[in-house]
Predict the 3D structure of the following.
Amino acid sequence: MRQFTRRSFLTISAMTAAGIALDWKKISAWAANMGPKQDYPTVIIGAGLGGLCCGAYLAKQGFPVTVVEQHDVPGGYATSFDRASGKFTFEVSLHGVTAKNNAVERILKNLGVYDRLEIVELPEVYCLKTPGGVITVPQKDPEGYVLNLASLYPKEEDGIRGFVNEMIGIADEAELLHQRGGKFFKPIFPLQYRKMWNARNKTLSEMLDEYVQTPALKDALSGLWGYYGLPPSKLSAFYYSVATGGYLKNGSCYIRQRSQDLSNALADMIEASGGKIHYGRQVTKILVRDQEVKGVELAGGSVLPAKGVVSNASAINTFEQMLPPDAVPEDYLEKLKTYKPSISCFIVWLGLNQEIKDKVPCCGCYVSSALGVEKGYQACINGDIENGAFGVSVYDKIFEGYSIAGTSTLMLLFLCGYGPWKKFEADYQAGRKEAYYKEKDRWTEILIRRADEMVIPGLSSIIEEKEAATPLTNRRFTGNTEGAIYGFEQSMDNAYMNRISNETPVKGLYLAGAWGNPGGGYEGVMRSGEITFQMLMEYWGG
């Protein structure tokens, strides 16, 4: 048996914490220690899914909750918007989410909103168009996925199957640990959860190297890298496996009619349970006395007293702009500076004047970069929209009636860095947008042309309505630093086991959402809100 160090124990503890369901026995005991719940007013900064989940848990337990949201609707990126006088309703972010037999289903049932939602299974998880052929990832059929890949790379079939089974095995071990309430006997953890343990310090690239050799095949097996924002050389194998293994085993879903329905359901639950949501308002300061939060100040000067503050906003903005300079230990601020905001994105939404669902092979098609994943990622960071990978989502293939009869609704997505748009930042904020609009239009036309050439022939001629968003748009509507779509990037020093804690050095201040633990994505931010709810309960009543 290898030596089991304190560092090993801490790694395991962190590895398991993010995946554990709520301990209602402990929560009840903490609540009993607290006295009147009205003595624990809580302010949630931001109505993204992380903040909404945390707020809904608190409100359902009877705590006074106030959510402050700068936008006029809840949801953050989980939202939708209308164009052409409501003829087209565009989805902002949701492509697919695992919402059955997992944490998302459990959280939504805990909060009493699961039965209010219609969760629709996608026809397939996704399709990947590569220079070597089209690879379809079928729903809940890992062996079918293996065989699809093996038809293109027959000599690597055993390695493909081994890699896919390893990902599913890691996801299964994480789920088993969750079912056991996170309890483990530390000396034998590496034996009980061998796959989790073996993957803990590996990049996805390192894990791929153990099973397959063909570079194009490695790129195909890491085809969902865009969901996590980093290429295989930088992405945690553990993080990728837990999420992707879940997709392969449990399938991918969509929330009908749009992701806004999910956000609305959570917001309604908060208000139905006595909580309040203030839209069109912005928190400018978090008030601290004796290293403990006392409330928040809103733009205009009004104050909301609070026993707890949960930031669903950018962690960078939270610590650098909202808090007093002396409220946060210097070493914590220095550590934060080592973390980077995640990749952002450029999106084009299209309303078409005809139905095309029978003319395209799948609802979600990702076109890989001819440069390969690693160089393709760099092309995205640099804003090389001619050569980076991109996605096409044909939502009308998900369910009948997504668009009105005779029309179709599409999203074109290109992940990109903030750098190419930073030069427009000052003028954008000052309202001088002529150069910005020119560049935005140029990118829009390039992306449409590429989708026309590679996915939907004739697309350019059937467009009735189009809208586009840049990283600056993301920054404007969410406040996220550099328009990040996944909070802090999931680098090896800030991913899953090593991820920043939702508990901060300021007493009573917590994170919830993509910037905290476990990170971005629908499931990640909802779990983050749940984790923070339990942390608050322990802080107040432990």
